[in-house]
Amino acid sequence: MTPATLQLLSRPDCELCEHMLRALEQFARREPLPPIALVDVDSDALLRRRYGLKIPVLLLEGSPVCSGALDEQALREALRAVNRPSAADPA
Fold first, then answer.
1. Is position 38 within any domain?
2. Which site from 11, 53, 55, 72 is most exposed, i.e. has the minimal number of CB atoms within 10 Å?
3. In terms of residue numbers, what domain contains 31?
């Protein structure tokens, strides 16, 4: 099984983005998290168009988990869903 991918979409000098990153770091001290990749939302035209006004945005496997502030419950649920074996996986 491939480890999940977390991406924090942000931009330089974004105070909300810095708050979410700190919240993620605190969360990771209590519960295991996949590595977090910081992505400048302005580095990609599609990301900028889709999420540019909503940053910070936390993506798990490319799907939005939360924006603006860390939603710990939504992150837990998303991680459980990603880590849940599918019916097609052999036991």
1. yes
2. 53
3. 6-83
